[in-house]
Amino acid sequence: MIQGQPRLSESVIGARGRDSHNPGRFHTQQTTGFSMDVKDKVIVVTGAGRGLGRGIAKMLASKGAKVACVDLNEADLAETVQVCKDAGGDGQAFIANVAKEDDVEKLFADVVSELGGLHGVVNNAGITRDGLLVKAKDGQITKMPLQQWQAVIDVNLTGVFLCAREAAAKMIELGVDEGVIVNISSLARQGSFGQSNYSAAKSGVAALAEVWAKELARYNIRTGAVAPGTINTDMIAAMKPEARDRLVSAVPLKRIGEPEHIAMSVLFIFENSYFTGRCIDTDGGLR
């Protein structure tokens, strides 16, 4: 035993079990090979209606995954499902609010029932409600309302918790050979002006990926996070050219990323069977 390393707890010993040929040795279910093939795997992508979620769904579908596309906007979901099919894969729409426990429980039950299994989830759904913690002007002090804080935490942090919890429970119940949970974090996890709520949530989901890597490894469920920088989504496209130019100038690579860049990082986490518990910054070098 490495000096300072804690002994295996009885709960871990019980979960892993003893090797029948060598009672003093413990074992876990092992993954064979170096990579996980996503072909025919059932993968849930939340916030799939547009932007990053659509790009991730398209990438997974193009590799043969059965993608459960989740969002609240039915019209956007219909477009994403078509994008998945055009990419040569399979996509199916599911309406759910990730911040509502009942919705999430029903979502994963429906996915398993309709698509025949579950092998992973990409927790991408998120919102912004930017504002300063406090602001003083002309002798008046205004404060960020609790509702503004809570709205972002409910979707961006609690929603990730709920989806990961249900996904893990289902994958364990189904006895999958290998499962994957990916949380979409953000460069803002390091602290972004005017985004107390968003930064806290995105820091939280990166930390949860590390926690869950330790908790779920015994079930052969891997985890990871991806932290995008400035990506070409609808919000960026709607900016005035001068504002967009300022963003580009701050990126060492001098260009804005595309949703496909984030999708490639997500795919890497799925395919690399020795990756777990870490966050991939995909930001063009922006810090």
Order of adjacent strands in the largest pleated sheet? 5-4-3-6-9-10-11
Name the assembly state.
single chain
As residue ranges, the low-confidence spans are: 5-28
What proportion of the residues form beta strands (DSSP E)?
15-25%
Architecture (CATH level 2) name: 3-Layer(aba) Sandwich
The biggest beta sheet, please?
7 strands, parallel
CATH class wording: Alpha Beta
Describe this structure in words.
This protein has about 290 residues and is of the alpha/beta class. It has a single domain (about 35-280), classed as NAD(P)-binding Rossmann-like Domain (Rossmann fold, 3-Layer(aba) Sandwich), CATH 3.40.50.720. It is about 45% helix and about 20% strand. The protein is built from nine helices and eleven strands. The chain has helices at about 10-15, 50-60, 75-85, 100-115, 145-175, 195-215, 235, 240-250, 260-270; strands at about 20, 20-25, 40-45, 65-70, 90-95, 120-125, 135, 140-145, 180-185, 220-230, 280. The strands form three sheets. The chain has a seven-stranded parallel beta sheet, with helices on both faces. A hairpin with a 2-residue loop joins β7 (about 135) and β8. Mean pLDDT is about 90; it is low at about 5-30.
